[in-house]
Amino acid sequence: MSTPCVSAFRWVPPFAQGVVRDLRVRWALEEAGVGYEAQLLDFEESKQPAYLRQQPFGQVPAFSDGRVDMFESGAIVLHIALDSPALMPGDDAGRARTMTWIFAALNSVEPAFAQLGEIDLFHAGEAWTVERRPQVEADVRAKLATLSAQLEGRDYLEDNFTAGDLMMVTVLRILRHTPLVGEYPVLHAYQARCEARPAFQRALAAQLEPFEQAA
Fold first, then answer.
1. Residue 183, C-beta contacts closer than 8 angstroms, at least 6 positions apart
2. Which CATH superfamily is domain 5-86+199-206 in?
3. What would you report as the CA-atom Rg of the chain, rounded to the nearest whole angstrom?
4. Quick one: fold of 92-197?
5. What are the start-end ranges of the H helices in 104-162?
6. What CA–CA distance (Å, rounded) separates 75 from 89?
7. How does pLDDT run across 72-94, given as a tens digit for each residue?
8. Which three-class secondary structure state does DSSP give residue 54?
């Protein structure tokens, strides 16, 4: 297997720094103890035919490790986790639960969070948001309450940190422009606990470094 390569943007606006989805893959590789290279792209490069052959939607990340060529952060994290005891339990039940939490983060939780972020960051002040935003925030709060109840008395979603936690925390970070997570002490502590992991800190620093250099 060759050194994995992860595509990432060379620069993004400040509101997106630290939440671009290549962070998920970098974090998974750091937890797994696998070194990697970053393929840095300008936005214009991400729309060119050469890159679209790697990532048809012109997004990041794309991933290659000499065995597979992939896109979509959730699929890539799952691929890495299946080879890593640090991210995936060894028993069938634990593996099934971890995979369930990965998909729950992406399908049950992230859409509402992303919609709130889109309203606040791209459409703030527009007339249609007056009615729509409270509806979306209510949905976000319902998701947060469910997660908080699941984590009550626990450090992680399962017995130990898994790829499910990795994915869920990167989704929670979408709300960092709001005080919402902080209103749920269990979730606030959970996010802080996961973000304190050395692997996360290395992944975040690696993502932010080219942004700082570009600035």
1. 144
2. Glutaredoxin (3.40.30.10)
3. 17
4. Glutathione S-transferase Yfyf (Class Pi); Chain A, domain 2 (1.20.1050)
5. 110-122, 129-151
6. 17
7. 999 999 999 999 999 999 999 99
8. coil
